[in-house]
C-alpha cells in the first residue's frame, strides 16, 4: 500500500530541491575551485593603488589598522587615505603625526555632512576625489588585513580584467554562541555574493574589502543614485556597476581577506544587520528573486517540517528529507569554510542554520515595521 503523501510533504520536498540546486550550482562548485585556479602570475598586481579608510571616532581601531596597512608588501607602491568623518576624538592628531613620517599617508577631514546625505557616502566621495591613483581599495577602520599580501592579492583581481573586485571579510573567532552565529551568517552571506558573482551574477560586495577603479566610480556617477540612503556604499554601488555593464570579479583567496571583531552583544549585531539589510530593497528584481528564493526556501522548509511533526504518516519521508538537506548543507558549508579559511565547528552547523534563518525573518519583520536607521 503506497504511503499517503500529503501536499505539505510535496511542498517540503520542493523546498529541499530548491536548496539542493543552490548547493549544487553555486556553493559546491565555488568551494571546490582551488586557490590556484585562475590565479594570476606574481607580476600581475598592476600599478600603484589608493587605499581608503573612512573613520568616525575610531582612534583605537586606527592605531591597530594603520601600522598593518603601512607594512603591506606591495612593490608598485600605494597611498593611504584616511577620511576623518566628523570625529570627536584625536583621530586628526594621530593621522597628522603619521603624515610627518610616511609621505604616502594622506588625511581628508570632513567637518559636516550636508543635510539629507549619507555621512559615509559623502565622506567616501571626498576621499575618492583626492585619490591620486586609478585603482581604489577600501576597508573599514575596525578591520585588519589577514596578511601583508592583502593589497597585492586584491589588486590582482584587476588583471582578469575587471572594473570591480569583490573580497571576503571574516570575523575573528571568539568564545560564545553569538560569535559562532555571526561567523555563520558572514560565511553564508559570503557564499552567496561570491559564488553568485563567480557564476556571473554579481549583486553586492562588502565595504570592509572591496576594490574598484576611479573610472567605475565616474561611470556609475558615484553614489548619486542612493546618496540619501544610509547604507549601500558597497552593495548598491555594485548594483549600479552591474547596470552600467562593468566587469565584476571575485578575489577570495585567504591572503586577500580582511578580519574584523564581531559584535559582542545581540543588540549591537541587530542594529548592524538592520543597517545592512535595509539596502536590499534597492536591489534589482532578478537579484531579489535569487536571494529571496534561497532564504524563502529555507524558512518554508522549517515551517513545513514543524507542521509535519504532527502528521504521523509523514514522519518517515520527513526524516528522509530532513536528513538529505542536513547532509547537503553540512558538506557545502564545511567546504565553503575551508575554501574561505573561515571554518566553524561542523557539529554546530545545523543549529546555527536554524537560528540564523529565524533571526533573518525577525530582522525582515523589524525593517518592515520600523525603518528608522542611523550611521554612527
TrEMBL record:
InterPro entries registered for this protein in UniProt: Glyco_trans_2-like, Nucleotide-diphossugar_trans
Keyword terms of this UniProt record: Glycosyltransferase, Membrane, Transferase, Transmembrane, Transmembrane helix
PANTHER family noted in UniProt: POLY-BETA-1,6-N-ACETYL-D-GLUCOSAMINE SYNTHASE
Keyword Glycosyltransferase: yes
Annotated source species: Hymenobacter persicinus
Domain Glycosyltransferase 2-like: 50-218
One Pfam family from the record: Glycos_transf_2
Domain of life: Bacteria
Gene3D superfamilies: Spore Coat Polysaccharide Biosynthesis Protein SpsA, Chain A (3.90.550.10)
Transmembrane spans: 6-28, 291-310, 316-334, 346-370
Molecular function, one GO term: glycosyltransferase activity
Protein name (record): Glycosyltransferase
Cross-referenced SUPFAM superfamilies: Nucleotide-diphospho-sugar transferases
Family, similarity comment: Belongs to the glycosyltransferase 2 family.
Amino acid at each position: 500500500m503506497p504511503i499517503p503523501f500529503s501536499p505539505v510533504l510535496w511542498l517540503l520536498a520542493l523546498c529541499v530541491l530548491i536548496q539542493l540546486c543552490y548547493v549544487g550550482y553555486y556553493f559546491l562548485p565555488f568551494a571546490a575551485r582551488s586557490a590556484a585556479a585562475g590565479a594570476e602570475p606574481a607580476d600581475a598586481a598592476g600599478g600603484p593603488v589608493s587605499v581608503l579608510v573612512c573613520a568616525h571616532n575610531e582612534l583605537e581601531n586606527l592605531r591597530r589598522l594603520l601600522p598593518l596597512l603601512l607594512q603591506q608588501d606591495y612593490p608598485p607602491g600605494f597611498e593611504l587615505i584616511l577620511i576623518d568623518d566628523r570625529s570627536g576624538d584625536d583621530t586628526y592628531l594621530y593621522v597628522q603625526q603619521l603624515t610627518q613620517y610616511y609621505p604616502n599617508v594622506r588625511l581628508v577631514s570632513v567637518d559636516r555632512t550636508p543635510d539629507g546625505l549619507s555621512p559615509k557616502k559623502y565622506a567616501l566621495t571626498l576621499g575618492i576625489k583626492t585619490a591620486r591613483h586609478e585603482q581604489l581599495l577600501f576597508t573599514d577602520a575596525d578591520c585588519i588585513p589577514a596578511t601583508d599580501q592583502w593589497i597585492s592579492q586584491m589588486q590582482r583581481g584587476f588583471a582578469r580584467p575587471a572594473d570591480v573586485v569583490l573580497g571576503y571579510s571574516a570575523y575573528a573567532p571568539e568564545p560564545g554562541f553569538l560569535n559562532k552565529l555571526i561567523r555563520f551568517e558572514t560565511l553564508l552571506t559570503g557564499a552567496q555574493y561570491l559564488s553568485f558573482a563567480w557564476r556571473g551574477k554579481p549583486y553586492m560586495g562588502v565595504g570592509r574589502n572591496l576594490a574598484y577603479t576611479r573610472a567605475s566610480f565616474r561611470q556609475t556617477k558615484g553614489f548619486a543614485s542612493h546618496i540619501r540612503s544610509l547604507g549601500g556604499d558597497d552593495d548598491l554601488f555594485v548594483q549600479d556597476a552591474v547596470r552600467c555593464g562593468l566587469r565584476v570579479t571575485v578575489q577570495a583567496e585567504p591572503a586577500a581577506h580582511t578580519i574584523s571583531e564581531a559584535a559582542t552583544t545581540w543588540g549591537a549585531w541587530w542594529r548592524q544587520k538592520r543597517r545592512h539589510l535595509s539596502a536590499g530593497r534597492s536591489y534589482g528584481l532578478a537579484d531579489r528573486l535569487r536571494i529571496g528564493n534561497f532564504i524563502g526556501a529555507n524558512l518554508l522548509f522549517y515551517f513545513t517540517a514543524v507542521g509535519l511533526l504532527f502528521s504521523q504518516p509523514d514522519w518517515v519521508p520527513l526524516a528522509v528529507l530532513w536528513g538529505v538537506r542536513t547532509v547537503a548543507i553540512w558538506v557545502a558549508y564545511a567546504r565553503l569554510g575551508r575554501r574561505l579559511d573561515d571554518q566553524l565547528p561542523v557539529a554546530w552547523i545545523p543549529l546555527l542554520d536554524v537560528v540564523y534563518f529565524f533571526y533573518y525573518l525577525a530582522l525582515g519583520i523589524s525593517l518592515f515595521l520600523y525603518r528608522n536607521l542611523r550611521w554612527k
